[in-house]
Amino acid sequence: MSGVDQVNAVAFNLLFMQVAFKALEDSKTEDEHDHEAAFYRIEQLGYQVGQRLVERLLAQTQVSRLPEQIDVVKFLCKEFWMVAFGKGIDNLKTNHRGVFVLQDQNFQWISRFSVDGSNPATAKMAVLYLAFPCGMLRGALANMGIVTTVTAEIPSFPQCVFQIRTQSAAQ
């Protein structure tokens, strides 16, 4: 990673930290933060970014249309993930019925969190940080014609698992 890339990453981390805190503050009701409302706000921001990013990426790579869902998800795991997170996804699994599981063994966005996953405050904040990439994936897939639900979990810091469930799999 070059010096410019490192500065960009630090600047983004600081900006995103403020976005997360602002979403939490805006969702505050009666001295309690509504993490679900904050998650939704951040996920919506990610959705918009994902739509725009994949549109730009498709134009740059001159990919017009990917024929199968698996091809679209593979494109996201290689090309999209590289642009968005600086590396490809570590593992992709599918049940071939519209459910895809993406594993990132060292997800940079949560790598700076305390490794004490037993702390509920840390776990809640880490989940909030995953709202944006969930939205990015959902937005990118929507822009490519696939309606999905995207969830994320943290088996252990900094490992992250994203589950993509297409609309056809939910039926």
If you had to describe this structure to a student in words, what would you say it looks like?
The chain has a single domain (3-170), classed as Trafficking protein particle complex subunit 3 (Muramoyl-pentapeptide Carboxypeptidase, domain 2). The strands form 2 sheets. The protein has a 4-stranded antiparallel beta sheet with strand order 3-4-6-5. A two-stranded antiparallel sheet has the order 1-2. Helices cover 56% and strands 16% of the residues. The protein has 171 residues and is of the alpha+beta class. β1 and β2 (32-33) form a beta hairpin. α1 packs antiparallel against α2 (35-61) and α2 (35-61) runs parallel beside α4. This is Trafficking protein particle complex subunit 6B. Belongs to the TRAPP small subunits family. BET3 subfamily. InterPro entries: NO_sig/Golgi_transp_ligand-bd (IPR024096), TRAPP_component (IPR007194), TRAPPC6/Trs33 (IPR037992). One of its GO terms (biological process) is endoplasmic reticulum to Golgi vesicle-mediated transport.
